[in-house]
Design goal:
The chain is α/β, with parallel strands linked by helices and 440 residues long. The protein has one domain: Thiolase/Chalcone synthase (Peroxisomal Thiolase, Chain A, domain 1, 3-Layer(aba) Sandwich). The protein contains twelve helices and 17 strands. The chain has helices spanning 21-30, 76-91, 125-133, 143-150, 166-175, 190-203, 221-229, 269-274, 304-316, 335-349, 362-365, 372-386, and strands at 6-15, 18-19, 35-37, 50-52, 112-118, 136-137, 140-141, 181-184, 209-217, 257-268, 281-290, 326-328, 357-358, 388-389, 412-413, 418-424, 429-436.
């Protein structure tokens, strides 16, 4: 691998506590909670009736006139990715065909790419329901009738709303990013894996600039059903939704589904310097691995895959575990998961674990799936840049068995030279990233 350095010059997000980076930053440090009773569909018959829902907006503001017809083919996941990418690109002070079609374009399109992670994009049940009616025979679903009649009621381009590669496709078309483009679909690890790949593309001189991150909406009847069947959704706090998602807390009973997107702009250092870009931090390490549990729902007891991903990321950054000042773990708020992840943290950081400041975000946002680790990376970037760490919400009683230094104070000033974040999926994929203060 070359000596090319990769820096982060832009961040964008839409999630349950913020539409855009500035609103999110304010609410993050204020301790705002975005989890509430579900409004977008009737969840009254579900064991879990809560979610982190993001703002609904008209897409015309985020796409040029030439692309507005295409917004009809955007699922919720695609919409949020496009919004977060627009926020990140504008925040990086880049001029593209998407931000200013008549302006002086400030990128080299063929050296600029996109890599956005996605989850399984669930269909709009109302949209699909009408077609299903046409596919029933004697009150039974018929595949023959579905093929002959049911599918005929769907718009011909219906499938384009639900393909995971369409998140990257829309962003690349809008902003005319003609370099490497990819989509990674590995559930909750997707966003961080996408950033890791973008990082390596720049390191290996395949691109100078990459727009990367993740986007997913888990606020859907099908996805909520899956979480309830897996017994990973919170069910004890339907009457107190803002207290529901409790990462690493003694009283955690499950996560809250949520929706959001997090996107960052990565650049080769000299490329950023030449255009006078503001630099948030340097991305110095990336690692990935696999959780080896045979149980799809529960990670292995020591979350070994997360340990390996963290060790790789720290080694890739040419650091030691003791160099890391703060860590943002996955923190799903499912007791078996939190216990396993805590063991992984102890395995990597050993005695340093007691001094390692930990922030867990899902008490505020819920679990935004493929977007969750990219939002956590944005958290780490904000903490490093501003020299302070937010309070972990909904963890008033950290489980003593975990032995983690969860930040429970109001926004706390802290000197951060290096920060890490990690994540994992039910399918087993794991990822970790290390960022460092830019030293020039």
């Amino acid at each position: 691998m070359s000596n090319r350095r990769v820096v982060i010059t832009g961040m964008g997000t839409v999630n349950p506590i913020g539409l855009g980076l500035e609103e999110y930053r304010q609410n993050l440090f204020d301790g705002t909670v975005g989890v509430d009773n579900i409004q977008s569909f009737d969840a009254s018959k579900f064991p879990s009736q809560i979610a982190g829902e993001s703002a609904r907006v008209k897409m015309n503001k985020y796409v040029p006139k030439s692309h507005r017809k295409a917004t009809k083919l955007m699922s919720r996941d695609i919409e949020m990715a496009v919004i977060a990418a627009d926020d990140a690109i504008r925040g990086a002070k880049l001029v593209t065909k998407g931000t200013d079609p008549e302006g002086d374009i400030s990128i080299e399109p063929t050296r600029s790419g996109v890599n956005v992670g996605a989850g399984l994009i669930s269909c709009d049940l109302v949209e699909l329901g009408g077609s299903t009616v046409h596919a029933t025979e004697n009150n039974q679903f018929s595949y023959t009738k579905w093929g002959n009649e049911g599918m005929a009621t769907l718009t011909p381009l219906w499938l384009l709303k639900y393909l995971p590669n369409m998140l990257s496709c829309h962003i690349s078309i809008i902003h005319d990013l003609q370099g490497p483009s990819n989509a990674i679909t590995c559930a909750d690890a997707s966003g961080l894996l996408a950033i890791g790949e973008a990082y390596n593309l720049i390191k290996n001189d395949k691109a100078d600039l990459m727009v990367a991150g993740g986007s997913e909406s888990k606020v859907n009847g099908v996805k909520l059903t899956r979480q309830c069947f897996q017994k990973t959704a919170s069910t004890n706090y339907n009457d107190r939704p803002k207290e529901a998602c409790r990462p690493f807390d003694r009283d955690a009973d499950g996560t809250a589904v949520a929706e959001g997107s997090g996107v960052i702009v990565l650049e080769e250092l000299e490329h950023a310097q030449k255009r006078g870009a503001d630099i948030y931090a340097e991305l110095t390490g990336f690692g990935g691995s696999y959780n080896f549990s045979k149980d799809y729902v529960t990670p292995e007891a020591d979350c070994r895959g997360v340990s390996i991903a963290l060790e790789k990321a720290i080694s890739n950054a040419k650091l030691t575990p003791n160099d890391i000042n703060t860590l943002i773990p996955h923190g799903l708020a499912v007791a078996t998961h939190d216990a396993a992840e805590a063991k992984a943290i102890h395995h990597v950081f050993k005695d340093h674990t007691a001094d390692l400041k930990i922030f867990a975000s899902k008490g505020q946002t819920g679990n935004c799936g493929a977007a969750a680790p990219t939002i956590d990376l944005i958290n780490a970037l904000l903490f490093l840049k501003e020299g302070k760490i937010a309070k972990t919400i909904n963890c008033p009683n950290p489980n003593p068995d975990y032995g983690l230094n969860i930040n429970q104070q109001a926004t706390t000033e802290i000197s951060i030279d290096h920060a890490a974040t990690c994540c994992y999926t039910f399918g087993g994929q794991t990822a970790a990233v290390v960022i460092s203060k830019y030293q020039g």
